[in-house]
Amino acid sequence: MELFVAQLLNGLVYGVLLFLMAAGLSLIFGLMNVVSLAHGSFFMLGAYLGLAIFKATGSFWLAFVLAPIPVAGIGIVMELLFLRPLYRRGHMDQVLLTFGFTFVFLDLVQTIWGRAVLHLWAPAGLHGIVHIGLGVFSAYRLFLIGFGFAIALVLWLLLERSRIGAMVRAGVDNAIMAAGLGANIPALFSGIFGFGVALAALGGIAAAPILGLYPGMDSEILIPAFIVIVIGGMGSLRGAFVGSLLIGIVDTFGKAYFQGVALFLIYLAMLAVLLVRPQGLFGIKYSDASVAPAVTTTSRPASLQTRTSELGVLVALLILPFLMGDYPRALVSEIFIFAIFAMSLDLLLGFTGLMSLGHAAFFGLGAYAVAILGTQFELNAWLGVAAGVAIAACGAALIGFFCVRTGGIPFLMLTLAFSQLVFSVALKWRDVTGGSDGLTIAEQPSFFGFSLSRSLVMYFMTLSFFALTYWVLRRLLNAPLGHAFVGIRENEQRMMAVGYPTRAYKLLSFTIAGAIAGLAGGLYAIFNGFISSDAIYWTASGDILIMTMLGGAGTLVGPAIGTALFLLMKNVVSSYSEHWLSIIGAIFICCVMFFSGGLWGAAQKLQWRRVAK
Amino acid sequence: MSVLRLDSLYKSFGNLVVTDNISLIVDAGERHVIIGPNGAGKTSLVNQIGGQLRPSAGRVLVNDHDITGWPPDSISRMGVARTFQRNNLFQNLSVVENIRLALEVRLGNPLNFFAPVGRDTAMSERATQLMAQVHLDGDGARAARTLSYGEQRQLEIAIALAGEPELLLLDEPTSGMSPSETARMIALIGSLPRTLSILMIEHDMKVVFSLADRITVLHYGKVLATGTPAEIQANDRVREVYLGMVH
User: Most CB atoms closer than 10 Å: which of A197, A213, A283, B129?
Assistant: First the structure.
């Protein structure tokens, strides 16, 4: 009984921390239709700035009160300078922009405070333990629960009873109409964004004495906070509150009583809720037709790349390896593999209009199939690749079944949550997957009798799969099926009206994209000789999204160019500077701001303009 | 033989009743026009037939098949095509691609993932015919968003016709058009074969009386009267609530 009460209180503490994150995320989404992936970074910044203030002043409470202020300032500047110019564009650009900022903030924290886990102790007055009849409990934790409930009450009063609250609620309902009625929407956007960021920062400093401080704490709070708003319903404060406590308690009890499956419990809770209510517990009814597509590209449906230039590039790629040494050959081979991965994501993102933030799951299924079937059953790696493609396709069909019921941001969040579920399996099922230690590929296969340990053979192997994938995808995109995908991206409601069962088509696109990602994963396992759960963490899905968007979604060439650029930068910049995260983040932020169609998209626009003249 | 039959169709949003026990029949080949003041529930009615809106009660029958509550794509495959009150096109795609999407799903093989679209010459010829039919010959390569408003409405019709429907639902085909564009649209609709039945919402009385075989007048979600144009013009209650307001 005592343990039970203690777990319940621990669950409430975690729930309160999640609520401080989720309340801001949910308000910002409801009002501005922006999902900020940088919200976890603000949580982390709050904690670290709190530590700095504590070290300077010696007062925890001063840190507690002051730390959120500069973080909110950073948030408001980000909103004013970077998000604001993007409101006219598809809301996915904003998601991507905030993803770029997570790189910068992570690098900032690592540079100033290092990578080790730091500690911030609870204030002296709350150090002790309290007897509460049913057992003893840490005073600081009890304080947090009370504090969290008080914040929830204040937020509710602000929203329901104040003039600003009324404007926010009006803005959530219809921003344009609210502006017409006199609400100062731009100021409201900045204010709410800053307020939400301050709440996250407050959560960070509040959590610091319990969870400690370390780079990576941003992702660890962001993902469960996303699950909270998916469960609670996007844009609903009540949903954020109920969802936070639910997830906090489920997760804590899971870790205490069902250790083996603890990591999956919150995903299962999410699935259970979504099966019954796709819009979340307190979300407004979700309809397929009202969701804006992920990407609004100006490119032609299935861009017609001329045969001759394709042939020219192929010849150049055939000559290229003879001009370079082992290391660049390996780098280009890796680029080919990730280009396959990026093109598969683009089928979904650029051509079907669905933005997935969980595509690495299928890459992982393909890679683990090769590794596990090889080590456990001594299966030839090529058969492993074939099995991996099949497994990734089946996994995509299953996960896609749930995801394609939504679109837009809910789709993004669902794919993210599912991929984290796959990641958890890879991490926890150590006997089979090796967890974070990973698995080594038992035996490298040969390629038509040539040993893949030679960089030249590896180059030609990856090149042939890259060319094959490119060719197959180009055929598909020029065929009726590809046109149907583009039609769904452009206007799903009209596609239904002319007779396309669009949900089935979206599932088909998801499955094909998953299968090709599985191919890339299998090839990567052969190339790398090793696979660990890191390869399918959600940031891996984010990276491939960046590569695709950087080059230009909605074209086939774009993702390949983006991949090459990203991996070259990563390799070149990281050999000169420790700050390659910041540099890539900054370059990506600039690309989102100034080249909305990606680099290839911008190049095409220039070309059309010249043709038009 | 009725192509479309509505049996006591009822739809409410909370306390607001938009469709109040509407029963209506469209016979094969008939041109049936629905008129009524703003807010009479005309578009809601078409949305329930097309599957965009789910009725609260009552039945929708197409060729005696009960399609009540079916999703739009299934209804479309039953031979019901529609246009929308506000242009609802694939704005970034070309005219010919707009039409081909509709052609492919009903007459082609939309799951074909390997043969280039252009290789199917029968389909290309059909698309050319449709463009000629709606006076968009030569505009095939233009992006839909670059068409004039009236041309976009013509493209709406071409997309609807591409599926070779038995029943065509037209939601204010001439709204927002200039007089010359309207005249062209009347001629276009008038030239459609009688194998096709049409249920049309229209505000412009010139269009209504030059095309309608029968007219149904809606008022606050209810059927006020149904009859031939002459009967409707002679109906006192209709003159009172509707025609009186216009003229």
Answer: A197
